[in-house]
Design a protein that fits this description.
alpha/beta, Rossmann fold, 2 domains, seven-stranded mixed sheet, three-stranded parallel sheet, 13 helices, 12 strands, 17% strand
């Protein structure tokens, strides 16, 4: 009889422990949030976007989990990654699409499961995401191009302009391209040729520019390149052809190599987009959606509530100031290595 009572007591205790455990698990309430980035051609995603996004989510919700994956420029792979995230029960997906058109399928799949989609950096025009967070891409294009045009006019440069655009499958690249044209078309400088760079591939940009250097020998006054990768490829093409000096070339993203090229004088400008700003904004919005809230947009783009931040053009004239600003991702010690120390000293970068 005692054994029976003991067995019953143990059973009751086990039930109680199970109930407490279940309650604790429920109280924890840690949502899963997906963060899907497009490629590794741009170093920013691995080095900055993902770590900053994760850190902000951790600050907002210690129990939340960020599931991060990079598609490596493969739209089909990104689709598989999104499907996997949905199967794992994520409460929100933040996605920088490889292919803006193909990403419409991901949006529709998520909506069928009532999972909100936040487009990040690149918009998704063919399907309405729940939110869009980015820097103003059209403004980026117009700013880098106008900066170059102003420089060419100030130096009384002669010749025309090459335009190296981003990926034709990236809607953000289309906005940057539109912005570039708004400055170049009315500049008085002839647009010699332009190229949409598949996958933002620096090597493809370099190969195209190499052909233009041959075709327009001595006629290229400057190059508007849509990001630092294509800008770096453009500069490499001129150097390989033995062109001295290299015409001024633009960029965008303020990657380490680009900032160093600006300091050295190899690249005319880039764009500082403190990734911390957009990564943390996206984390905050994703967390709100994961809690069932619907944050309001501060703007609207492609019929999507949006937050669009204004970037800063960086040239030799202001690089020291920009690098010292709060939120800039790179440290002077990383930028001003032995090869660049003398140039850094001249510009007051210490």
């Amino acid at each position: 009889m005692k054994a029976l009572r003991l067995s019953a007591a143990l059973a009751a205790s086990a039930v109680a422990l199970t109930t407490v455990s279940a309650c604790n698990s429920s109280d924890k309430g840690g949502e899963k949030i997906a963060f899907l980035m497009p490629d590794i051609a741009s170093t920013r995603y691995e080095l900055f976007d993902a770590p900053l996004f994760k850190a902000k989510v951790k600050q907002l919700c210690d129990d939340c989990e960020v599931l991060y994956q990079n598609a490596g420029s493969d739209a089909a792979k990104q689709q598989q990654q999104a499907d996997s995230m949905l199967a794992q029960g994520v409460k929100a997906i933040v996605i920088d699409p490889v292919d803006s058109a193909a990403a419409a399928t991901i949006v529709n799949s998520a909506k069928s499961r009532n999972v909100p989609i936040i487009a990040y950096d690149r918009p998704i025009p063919k399907a309405k995401a729940d939110y869009y967070v980015s820097f103003d891409n059209e403004k980026i294009g117009s700013s880098i191009a106008q900066s170059l045009v102003d420089h060419l006019k100030a130096t009384k440069a002669e010749g025309g302009i090459l335009e190296v655009n981003g990926s034709p499958t990236d809607a953000a690249a289309g906005l940057i391209k539109k912005g570039i044209h708004s400055s170049v078309d009315s500049s008085g400088f002839k647009l010699l040729a332009e190229y949409d760079t598949p996958g933002w591939d620096p090597t493809k940009a370099q190969n195209w520019v190499a052909g233009q250097v041959t075709q327009f020998k001595g006629q290229i006054a400057g190059v508007v390149a849509a990001n630092d990768g294509t800008g770096g490829g453009s500069i490499a093409a001129f150097k390989a052809a033995g062109v001295k000096p290299v015409p001024p070339v633009t960029g965008n993203d303020a990657e380490l190599a680009a900032i160093q090229r600006v300091i050295k004088g190899d690249q005319y400008n880039t764009i500082s987009k403190p990734i911390k700003i957009v990564a943390e904004a996206a984390a905050d919005i994703a967390y709100q959606f994961a809690q069932g809230k619907k944050p309001a947009g501060k703007a609207t783009l492609f019929d999507t509530p949006s937050q669009l931040f204004i970037p800063t053009v960086v040239t030799k004239d202001n690089v020291a100031k920009v690098v010292s600003e709060p939120g800039f991702a790179l440290k002077v010690a990383d930028i001003c290595t032995a090869e660049y120390k003398a140039d850094c000293d001249k510009l007051g970068l210490k």
